[in-house]
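Structure tokens please, single chain.
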Amino acid sequence: MSRSPADPAAPADDPPTALVRAELAEVLASPAFAAASAHQRLLRHLVEHSLAGDLARLKETMLGIEVFQRPAASFDPAQDSIVRVEARRLRQRLQRHYDNEGRTAELRIELPRGSYQPQFVRQRLPQDSAQALAAELVERGQYFLRQGHETGHRKALERFEAAVAADPTQAAPHAGVARAWMQLVATNIEPPRPGVDHALAAVHEALRRDPGHADALVLCAQLEHRFRFDWPAAEALFARALARAPQSPYVRHAHAFGLMLRRQFEAAESELVHARRLDPLHLGLRAHEALLHLYRRDWDSAAAALHALLDMSADNLLALALLANVDLLQGNAASALQRYQRVQQLHPRMSIGPAGIAQALALLGRHDEARAAVNELQSRWAGHYVSPYQLAMVAMRLDEPDAALTLLARAVDERDPNAVCLPVDPCFDGVAGDARFLALQARVLGA
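Here you go.
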């Protein structure tokens, strides 16, 4: 178990047996190994016999017989590749563990390619300067993303791009770039094209660097669902992400949102509860809990959840906009108007405020003012993307269902990021039985 003195990961001497066994216990109890009894058995065998210096027991033939119960009289590794296959899978499982729960472990158990003798490598933390800088920039980018508005999203994109420049070999910076672009599109700050293309390029680069990177898998799932309307592909990616990082609140939250939009409300609620336990103070998660109530048409529960969120963050964009929407759904257009005006005041470069103002004016019977507000929105946003889905919501409030359906068709064709909400959005309950709406809904659901 020796390394070249030039190897930066080389320990000064072999780690104590007690430290190796303690790390083995941590690995075997980790989520990555929880349901992998064969890999638990293989890793324990390799580590214990390596510690004992019994290297003859680490040969492929002996592993096939002792670990995988192949018959001693007939087992031929040239004909039966089980040891090589499972050793490769064990290496991948170890990598998943050390990318997640084990990333700060003092010691790593590694299985070099072409060998069945594990190596026990002490970690030198912090990482080298480029990796440390990239990690710091990724953390800052994640902080800015949580702010939920344009300034935060653009700052996040800058930090993630700087992280890529600092260390392009890691998956996390590329995944961050993809996430920032997706948020810029999802909030209608940037158009679906080329924003989605930028997100796809970044997420594919992240997965090239690490095919099992949980955040990148989730982002790829969201892109498949929200912009390609391919739920089976998305669900498969979510399953891989959940297997890789079952205790990630981001993975659970993103999966919940996808389920919610598919009208799988009970499953979505279960995932949200799990995510909330993992990250009880995440404001976006709390907002989506309220959104679930809204999609269930439980206005009072939605309002209560949003008031609680605003108690924590009085100017939270998503909470203010959702509470204004609840006001509209409950017929309280005057209150909705005030809230949307506050949204516009706080975030004048986002269309959700003026589109909401137009909806509130329409419900107040001030139709001419509502249409003027829509015209002003389109004039101010000339050269920028104006969500046809948001305009369809205004048309519904103006009691213009044909116009709303035409706009919704545009939203689906253009992959407006809001289009995926069409099957659950109560704003369109008034056209829910229309054949044109049902056809659009089928497209979004992939039916």
